Here is the input.
Amino acid sequence: MGFENLFLGFQIAVTPFNLFVAVVGILLGTIIGVLPGLGGANGVAILLPLTFTMPPTSAIILLTSLYWGALFGGAITSILFNIPGEPWSVATTFDGYPMARQGKGGQALTAAFTSSFVGALFSIVLITLFAPILAEIALKFGPPEFFAIQLLTFSSFVGLGGGNPVKSLVSILLGFILAAVGLDIVTGQLRMTFGVTELMKGFDFIVAVIGLFGIGEILLSVEEGLSFSGAATGMKLGVVLETWKILPRYWRTFVRGSFIGFWMGFKPGGATPASFMSYAFAKRFSKNADRFGKGELEGVVAPETAAHAAGVAAMLPMITLGIPGSPTAAVMLGGLIIWGLQPGPMLFKEKPDFVWGLIASMYTGNIIGVVMVLAFVPAFAAILKIPFAILTPLIVVICAVGSYAVHNSMIDVWYMIIFGVVGYVFKKLDYPLAPLVLALVLGDLAENALRQSLIMSQGTLSIFFVRPISGVIMSVAVLFFLLPVITPWWRRLRGPSVGTPAARET
Amino acid sequence: MRAADLATALVLMALGGLVIFDAVRLGYDWGSDGPKSGFFPFWLAVAMVAACGLILLQALRQRTDKAFVSREQLRPVLSVLLPATAMVVVTGVAGLYVASALYIAFYMRWVGRHGWLAIAVLALGIPIVIFVIFERWFLVPMPKGPLEAWLGF
Here is the structure.
């Protein structure tokens, strides 16, 4: 069934123009991944206006390639500079940086890129197989089911996100409230504008992403005082081949990391916990557990496999259900709407060339990506040698350009600065930013789904629990929301146990 | 840290109160054809006020206290934030290209103490590259001011 579709996809993805677009995307993405303050989500947000005039398939290939590049780029700074460019590469620094200090940077980088590639490939194959089936099932979904899935998305931030659950909840609510500002399309009334004309348009999540993640991140990183003390790359063809000979030894770690990554990744907020979990498992089952943290190759393989598998898996709910699994996927979803496509299960029926072109481009993009980063690591690492006083204004200017370009409006540039300050304060006070952005993106969709469900049921909430599919999803969502309340009781009953480290997603 | 936590929770609480106020004006109950406009925001804001109340309690119970931001940390943060804000102000008057050139030049000199030649190359080069990519290749217009008008764009 799927193969002729995939073949059709490859015919689209392997045109010279689309391959060129993938190369450009990966190049820019890797640079963005290496730069502090710019990451997958706001890199995609800044480049989004440039895709308005492109054909949708090329546009999504550019943005997804950028995302793959950012995933690869995060590993470079983690290993060579001990700076995790992205939160999901924090676990990579544990063994990657010690290896680079011991002069085995080339080995660590090769292992990281290869693991990323393996993890990604695993998730892409699963997406190829399961996406059409999931889309088929989702075609039968009505508003209550969609609302239930959206609630599940947010409940997993509260229940599984780690950190302070009340603050996660506030972030979600704030995102939804900001999304509601402006014109209510259903009734035509203005909400929460208080007579201010500028507020009528509401808040664009692309600007929020650029401000929260871009400006906010720069403020945080200057506060910590940037000091780049890099190790030499030591990247040679001989080292790459040598490492490839050793890597098959860790096949168990690859398999485990891929499964953890995929499983965590298609739920929101997955990549970072997946990388930590994979690292913890690898350490537990390894014969050299005591060498972990001192420069063990397996300690690089485990988190990178899981992080990249999760990063790719986050695309699955985005293309099948129209519900993004990560802020980066959320920005891409926004792109879909701007390019005139209706995200959701109908996409497989209405625009098979787009969907399968995208899936095929995941294969080509990751192959091109791994070759490019292996070949040009020294060039990418040199980016961090650019003086800080040049990088900072450059990033701020790029953020301003990206914010303005969304709607050609000056007020958005102001919002960017304000969101930047909010992002800085929230990050310091442990309010997670990812759920805020996702709520801002999904706000209108969630509200419409809720309204339609309530109209169907004449205003009773029982509709969510009576229908079988939505009932199951809803129950899981409620369970996740209650998890922070239940867990302490459970712990007291069972006695003290060890918790897994959890970190935040951006 | 505690003071900042309390202040943020109070600000968010006030925001929630404002939303409730507006939602009541719009109507938060069942209308003739479904929930009224204020329905969704109302319950969101009620939940947010309640959650912020919990955060206030958590913060008040917290004993260990460290400063939200130290004086040495605040300086570099403001040295990024204030010039960036100034750039946005100038953008509104003189356009993005002039503003970003001035901003890059100022930052490189003031923070980085770079040589004037490097400053001239980058402060002029970066806006020109942005102009070529956005304005020429992708036809995305940026805010322009008197200089661009004088040059005929």
Summary: Chain A has one domain: 2-494.
